[in-house]
């Protein structure tokens, strides 16, 4: 099998989650060396099983700048460079009508999904600008392009990730660095399972509104992440990549 990510140092946040694990596993199979970041206390064991090879696991809260500085320093210590950054940690938060959606819940979602992504960019991007190469993939969502009732924090935060991606790309592109975001629609995962439970829905019901008539899989998302991480797409920069079975094309 070809190894388009051969020898690359690949930093992944939210790595112990479902999309993070599938992406880390695929990028490791394609030759990358994975530096996996997830929140303190998170179980890394299924990630370790999925990534068959060398894995540096780091417990860090992406909302804490000192921890971000530390995970970047530890990734850099491996080979003096960071080739790929999958800026992926995220939470969904509650679903509630505006009068019931508390400001603390809103702040919590914004802290992880926006400030966490911003802090990752703030500490990884200068490294890549100094190197003159690198690829960053931010995790937005179809919810970063559309509105859904009750998802105040999540939708707002994922729109912000699109904005951060575009700003970052304009600073990065002149220096040979790429910054893109991915915008998955519903993917078969715990996050979507919980959401469906909360709104009393299911894949069968919601798929009627998706042109592909099904949810996506974490492996499909991983394929997009690995492509954007690779050197196969040097002119793709600042772009918003829907992976949603046509959901946002309607
Ligand atoms: N699952 C989907 O259908 C879907 C769709 C669109 C976008 N996304 C986005 O993709 C990303 C990954 O989603 P997933 O389905 O793998 O979810 P997940 O819950 O399985 O993974 C998210 C990971 O982020 C970690 N995390 C949360 N807060 C953190 C913090 N403060 N510091 C460090 N790590 C933290 C969690 O511990 C978890 O391991 C998220 O940003 C999510 O919003 C998911």
Secondary-structure topology with pairs:
Elements: E1 9-13, H1 18-29, E2 33-38, H2 45-50, E3 55-59, H3 65-79, E4 84-87, H4 103-131, E5 134-139, H5 152-172, E6 177-184, H6 190-199, H7 203-206, H8 218-229, E7 240-243
Helix pairs in contact: 1-8, 3-4, 4-5
Bound molecules: nicotinamide-adenine-dinucleotide.
Characterize the structure shown.
- The structure is a single chain.
- By secondary structure, this protein is α/β, with parallel strands linked by helices.
- It has a single domain (9-186, 217-237), classed as 3-Layer(aba) Sandwich (Rossmann fold).
- 44% of the residues lie in helices and 15% in strands.
- It has eight helices and seven strands; from the N terminus they run E-H-E-H-E-H-E-H-E-H-E-H-H-H-E.
- The chain has helices at 18-29, 45-50, 65-79, 103-131, 152-172, 190-199, 203-206, 218-229; strands spanning 9-13, 33-38, 55-59, 84-87, 134-139, 177-184, 240-243.
- It has a seven-stranded parallel β-sheet with strand order 3-2-1-4-5-6-7, with helices on both faces.
- Strand 4, helix 4 (103-131) and strand 5 form a beta-alpha-beta unit.
- Helix 3 (65-79) runs parallel beside helix 4 (103-131).
- It is globular.
- The model has no long low-confidence stretch (mean pLDDT 97).
- Bound molecules: nicotinamide-adenine-dinucleotide (NAD).
- The site of nicotinamide-adenine-dinucleotide has 28 residues, from helix 1, helix 4 and helix 6.
- GO terms for molecular function: oxidoreductase activity.
- Residues 8-190 form the Ketoreductase domain.
- This is SDR family oxidoreductase.
- It comes from Jiella endophytica.
- Belongs to the short-chain dehydrogenases/reductases (SDR) family.
């Amino acid at each position: 099998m070809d190894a388009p990510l051969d020898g690359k140092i690949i930093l992944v946040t939210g790595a112990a989650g479902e999309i993070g694990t599938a992406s880390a596993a695929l990028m490791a199979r394609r030759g990358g060396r994975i530096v996996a970041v997830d929140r303190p206390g998170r179980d890394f064991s299924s990630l370790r099983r999925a990534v068959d090879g060398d894995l540096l696991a780091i417990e860090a809260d992406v909302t804490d700048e000192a921890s971000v500085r530390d995970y970047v320093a530890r990734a850099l210590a491996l080979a003096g460079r960071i080739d790929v950054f999958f800026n992926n940690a995220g939470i969904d938060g509650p679903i509630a009508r505006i009068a019931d959606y508390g400001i603390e819940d809103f702040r919590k979602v914004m802290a992880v999904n926006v400030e966490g992504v911003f802090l990752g960019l703030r500490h990884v991007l200068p490294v890549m600008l100094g190197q003159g190469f690198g690829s960053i993939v931010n995790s937005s969502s179809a919810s970063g392009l559309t509105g859904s009732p009750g998802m105040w924090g999540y939708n707002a935060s994922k729109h912000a990730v699109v904005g951060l991606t575009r700003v970052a790309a304009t600073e990065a592109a002149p220096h040979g660095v790429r910054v893109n975001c991915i915008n998955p629609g519903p993917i078969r995962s715990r996050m979507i399972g919980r959401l469906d439970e909360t709104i009393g829905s299911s894949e069968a019901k919601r798929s009627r509104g998706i042109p592909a008539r099904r949810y996506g899989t974490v492996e499909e998302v991983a394929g997009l992440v690995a492509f954007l991480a690779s050197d196969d797409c040097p002119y793709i920069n600042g772009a918003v990549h829907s992976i949603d079975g046509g959901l946002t094309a309607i």
